[in-house]
Amino acid sequence: MAQRKWLICQSEALKDAERGIRFQAEWRHTPVPAFVVRFQGKVHGYINECQHVPVELDFNEGDFFDLSGQYLICATHGAYYSPDTGLCRGGPCKGRRLTKLHLIEEAGAVYFLPDESKLHE
Ligand code: FES
Question: Measured in angstroms, how far is the CA atom of residue 97 from the centroid of ligand 1?
Answer without folding.
Answer: 12
